Amino acid sequence: MLASVVCLLSVIARRLTPLSIMVRERTFIAVKPDGVQRGLIGEIIKRFEAKGFKLAGMKYIQASEDLLKQHYIDLADKPFYPGLCKYMSSGPVVAMCWEGTGVVKTARVMMGETRPADSKPGTIRGDFCIEVGRNIIHGSDSVESANKEIALWFKPEELVSWTQTNESWIYE
Ligand SMILES: *[C@@H]1O[C@H](CO)[C@@H](O)[C@H](O)[C@H]1NC(C)=O
């Protein structure tokens, strides 16, 4: 009963709430070592900037295999897990935290499917890569994993809260 009242209230709230005061999520995006090697850092950042999302944190690092084992812990029982961690630690990556309404889901749409062959032209993977093991970019698959991944890759003080001057032209 309580649950259904809460659910109803949240539906009503969503109807009444302009986008501008809806929860601004954060997501974790990483340009993988192949994306870095292929000179696609700027191209990828450009797409998120142009969309209107706000950069909250960014670092250029060669991640340790330990960090990547943590990052991909949900895939630990998959046969490709060791290879995936190795590939991801084989060179520098650009780790980023992007912020905005619905950014977790929208970033996934912008990235395309995990398998580049299933990704439409216009998406990042659809435009720039061919194989699943060289799919150039990572993005969190849910708000919950975004929060976990951001906490894993960034210290709180490495994330910046700031006001975008064109925010009122991006959100109603
Ligand atoms: C925000 O404003 C700057 C400066 O006018 C512009 O270059 C940029 O494209 C704008 N961003 C968005 C997402 O519209």
From TrEMBL:
Per its UniProt entry, what is the enzyme's top EC class, as one word?
transferase
Q: Which SMART domains match?
A: NDK
InterPro entries for this protein: NDK-like_dom, NDK-like_dom_sf, Nucleoside_diP_kinase, Nucleoside_diP_kinase_AS
Where is each Nucleoside diphosphate kinase-like domain found?
A: 24-161
Q: Where does ATP bind?
A: 32, 80, 108, 114, 125, 135
Please list which residues make up the signal peptide.
Answer: 1-18
Please name the GO terms of the biological process aspect recorded for this protein, alphabetically.
Answer: CTP biosynthetic process; GTP biosynthetic process; UTP biosynthetic process
Q: Which reaction does it catalyse?
A: a 2'-deoxyribonucleoside 5'-diphosphate + ATP = a 2'-deoxyribonucleoside 5'-triphosphate + ADP
Can you tell which superkingdom this protein's organism belongs to? Eukaryota
Keyword Transferase on this protein? Answer: yes
Q: Which family does it belong to?
A: Belongs to the NDK family.
Stored PANTHER family: NUCLEOSIDE DIPHOSPHATE KINASE
- In its UniProt entry, what is this protein called? Nucleoside diphosphate kinase
Protein's organism:
Penaeus vannamei (Whiteleg shrimp)
Its lineage reads:
Eukaryota, Metazoa, Ecdysozoa, Arthropoda, Crustacea
